[in-house]
Amino acid sequence: MLWPLEFRLEAGLRLIGERLSVLPIYSYYIVPAREGILQETSTGEKYWRESPDANDRLFEQLGILRQDYLSIWNAVSLGLENAFWRGNQNNPAFPVEVTIYHGSRGKMVRIEDAGNGFDYEQKLRSFFSGGDYAIGRGSGFKALHQEKLIKAGYEGRGNVLNIALLIPDI
Q1: CB of 83 within 8 A of CB of 111?
Q2: What's the number of CA atoms in the CB half-sphere (13 Å) around residue 72?
Q3: For the domain that residue 137 is a member of, what is the CATH number?
Q4: Are 143 and 82 in contact (CB under 8 A)?
Q5: Are residues 51 and 94 in contact, defined by beta-carbon separation less than 8 angstroms?
Q6: How many whole angstroms separate alpha carbon 135 and alpha carbon 75?
Q7: Any domain includes 120
Q8: pLDDT tens digits for 74-94?
Q9: Number of independent structural domains in the chain
Q10: Does 58 reside within a domain?
Q11: 116-151: pLDDT as tens digits
Q12: Is residue 4 part of a domain?
């Protein structure tokens, strides 16, 4: 479920049962390229998903199997995709920082891109009212909002996405 206002790291950590002073269990940078060159998909489009191990590494650390939590896997994947595609504009010089926190009631994924951000409050108002909110298909917002085991939202200038996964046994 998407939060209509700013969703800060502190709020997400409280949801998963941790304090702000907790250290992340895993933090790394993903660069959507091999040897500095963006890879091409089968359609010829330059795309971050062709980056080796980008999704696999994240979901391995989260302990999420695609077949068990497909909707969560899709929602988090689209968050990463939007960070590369929209935030960093597919520029392989800019990494995306991914940080994972573990709590007694779930895990928290923080995705931060190097872009300028966006007016997420305005976009979310349009999304919730059924208006025009997306440049593309808007799959990221839809996936984050439809999954009931997720509480997610943006922080700061809109280049940080915080996703609380409310599944204590992962």
Answers
A1: yes
A2: 24
A3: 3.30.565.10
A4: no
A5: no
A6: 18
A7: yes
A8: 888 888 888 888 888 877 778
A9: 1
A10: yes
A11: 999 888 888 888 888 877 766 678 888 899 989 999
A12: no
pTM of model > 0.70: yes
Query: Helix, strand, coil proportions of the chain in percent (round to 5)?
Result: 30, 20, 45
Residue type, 6: E
Structural domain harbouring 51: 9-165
109: confidence class by pLDDT, cuts 50, 70, 90 = very high
Q: Which two tokens stand for residue 103?
A: 């709590």
For tokens 């068990």, the residue is 68
Token pair belonging to 23: 């250290």
Please report, for residues 119, 139, 159, the alpha-carbon distance to residue 112 in angstroms, rounded to integers and kept in the order given: 15, 19, 6
Whole-number Cα distances in Å, 162 to 35, 51, 76: 29, 22, 10
Q: Does some domain include residue 2? A: no
